[in-house]
Automatic annotation (TrEMBL):
InterPro entries: NAD(P)-bd_dom_sf (IPR036291), SDR_fam (IPR002347). This is RDH11 dehydrogenase. The keyword Oxidoreductase applies. It holds the Pfam family adh_short. One of its GO terms (molecular function) is oxidoreductase activity. Belongs to the short-chain dehydrogenases/reductases (SDR) family. Keywords: Oxidoreductase. Coiled coil: none annotated. The gene is Rdh11. It comes from the Eukaryota.
């Protein structure tokens, strides 16, 4: 939703292979279908990613490196605010993990 969906829409309009990295399979697939329909670009795909989980970040990065021949642009757009204090299963504060640690790890794992 929001800025991330607008960026994905613009990239798809430019005929870019566009990977939507989403926590929710249902919401992500709905966005994929909407973007494909609006742009005519069949190369819009969904991959599940929860940046609050470093295990999820590692699995996502591993799959991208294994399945994609190249990665030209990475847009780290995920973020949360206003959540009650919570600790992830990995012992990290949820907001900090989601907004900073996850995207930082993802970027570093995807660098050539």
């Amino acid at each position: 939703t929001g800025i991330g969906k607008c960026v994905a829409m613009d990239l798809a309009r430019r005929n870019a292979r566009t990977i939507l990295a989403c926590r929710s399979r249902e919401r992500g697939q709905a966005a994929v279908e909407e973007i494909r329909a609006a742009t005519g670009n069949p190369e819009v795909v969904l991959r599940l990613l929860d940046t609050a989980s470093l295990a999820s970040v590692r699995a996502f990065a591993s799959a991208v490196l294994r399945e994609e021949s190249r990665l030209d642009v990475l847009v780290n757009n995920a973020g949360v605010t206003g959540l009650p204090f919570a600790i992830t299963s990995e012992g990290l504060e949820q907001t900090f993990a989601t907004n900073y640690l996850g995207p930082f790890l993802l970027t570093n794992l995807l660098l050539g």
